[in-house]
Each structure stands twice: as structure tokens, then as C-alpha cells.
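REQUEST ID: PR-0412
SUBMITTED BY: lab tech R.K.
PRIORITY: routine
TASK: structure prediction, single protein chain
INPUT:
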Amino acid sequence: MKCIDQVPDSELKGKRVLLRSDFNVPIGKDGEVADRFRLEQGWKTVQYLRDRSAKVIIISHIGREPSESLEPVARELKKFGSVVFVADIVGAAARGAAEAMREGELLLLENLRRDPRETENDPSFAQELASLGELYVDDAFAAVHRAHASIVGVAKILPAYAGLLVCDEIREIDAARAPEHPSLAILGGAKFETKAPLIKLLLEKYDHLFITGALSNDVFKARGLSVGRSLISKELPDETTLSNPRFLAPIDVTAEDASGHAKVKKPEEILDNERLVDVGPDTVAMLAPHIAQAKFILWNGPTGIYEQGYIHYTQQIGELIAGSRAKIVIGGGDTIAAIEAAGVPKEKLGFLSTGGGAMLEYLLKGTLPGIEVLK
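STATUS: complete
OUTPUT:
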């Protein structure tokens, strides 16, 4: 895989560079960008190309519905630099705007997923996208696990390179696949059946693996405890996993009753009308020495239901990790947002990955479709 900073500046000057960024950011109720993190991380490659007088054509997707627009992203990007937004992808407006570009200019096109051929990895759509540029740069790490036209198809047509962000992500996550010891991995989220292979791998590579979030509900259920109204996966951890001496689970939890009142309890005290919404203070205290001793910490997934305001213990763990001497890799938008809400400076948190699912899949497989095609 060749990074764009390995290409001589003379080969970028005046060239139309099709840059696949990941500007899939949350849009608030006011119609404006609610979290700039991915924009800030992705802008480094945009600026790198602009500074070398390339004509930068930025493509991205946004949201879950094809109808969603990148126009709010364009408004936010104008705070970084001069960006022209065209509400088209491969039509006459997009082609005309690309052909009219001057050196150092930036063009942002509309949501790629408005064209269903994008997610189908349709060769005709890849060809139409490729015709806009002379070089292709993939800087969308959070989407490289998708075999889509803008990720895989275009890279087979144009000279293709990894962006600065993708190169950073691969370097840091490669380090997380072979951590320095002692090491600690913290894994949250849901759907044990999809994470079982990764859990097995992390138990092999890390000195301790702490399972949290909805995954810990599965642990309690597998141990024969009541989890009340809590979310449960289709598959539960087996005894080999539960009895592994490296395996850690919460020792106290925050339980919410039907009226919305929350209380810290032991896992064996959960009632049928309650649901687990976070860990408790004893769990944070249990993790503290592991965090203090670790030379490498991997973290993906908050401890509680972040969307409903249960972020207190995620924040406490974030503060402990920020105060450690470990090399740190953190992924997952909710994890990063919860830590930021605690006021923990980003510079104390090591490497913050823009990928959630892509990060976990790369940890497991060591490659992804969008990475493989760049080799």
C-alpha cells in the first residue's frame, strides 16, 4: 500500500485527484454538523493535496438514507477552507465543475449513496466516478470494510493511493494487533455473535480483555443470572471464554427500573422489570490497576447506553486512561464523544480512530477490501 505522501509533489500539481473521504458525520436538529471529529481528521489529506496544487474532488457518503445531503458538511468545511459544493455526483454538473477546476481548488460532490450503484459496487458507476479524476486517494478508513464502487471499484481503474488518515489508521491498528505487554483491551457494543471471533483473538493477544456495554448482558445471562429487560444477543459466550483467566466483566452495574430510576447493584440482584444501562463504581475501581499497569490499551465501545445519557463511568475510565503511561488506541464514535464530554483533552488519549466497525474488522482480519485493493 502506497501512501499519498510518497508521491512526488510534481506528480500532484495540476492533477485532478478524486479523494474518497469519510465525511459521514452526525447532523443536528438545526441542520448543521453536530460533531466535527471526522472532518478534522479528514481535512489533513485535503489540505495536503491542496498545498501541492492538486485539483481536489472530494466524494463521500452521509447518513443512512440516500436522501441525506452533504450540503451541511460543505457549510462546515468552509470554516476550514474554500470549498465549492455541487449537488451532483457523476452528472453534467459534476463533470463540468471538475473540468473547470483550477490548481488548489476544492470541490465536494453530493452523497454517493444517492446512486444505488455505489453500494452495489457497480462497475459502470465506478467508471463514471473514475472519469472525474486522474488519481484516486482513499482516505475513508471508516468505510474501507465496504466493497463499494467508490472504495474498491475506482481503485482498480485509476492510480490509487492511501490518504494520510488511512495510513495513520493502519499503522496504529497494526500496533494494536501486536500490543506491548502488559496490555488491556476494553470492548463494548452489542451482538456477541458478530464479535465472538474478535473476542477470541483479543484473549490470545492481550493480557486482559474487559467486556462491557450490552455484551456484558450476555455474560451475565450465560452465567445464569437475570438480566431483566436488557438487550441480549442471539449467541452467548461459552464456558471456555467465561473461564479464561484473562477475561474480565463488570462486578457491579447500573440498573434502571420501569419508571426510569437508576441504581447501582450487584449483577445477581437484577429484577425482572429492570434493565442494565451501565457499569458501576466498583467495576471502575477493578479496572484502575489494570489501566495503571498497562503499556498498551485498546478501547472500543462505551460502558453504558451513551445515547440515553449513561456516560458517567465511560468518562471515569477515560480519565484513568488519559492519566496512564500506556500507548492508547481508541475507536468508536460514541466512545470518543463520551470521553470528550468529560472534558478529557484529546491529546492525552493517544490515537483516536475514525472507524468503529472498520477498526474492529481490521483488528480481526488484518486487511479490508478497501485496503487490499490499494496493495
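NOTES: The chain has a mean pLDDT of 96.
REVIEWED BY: pending
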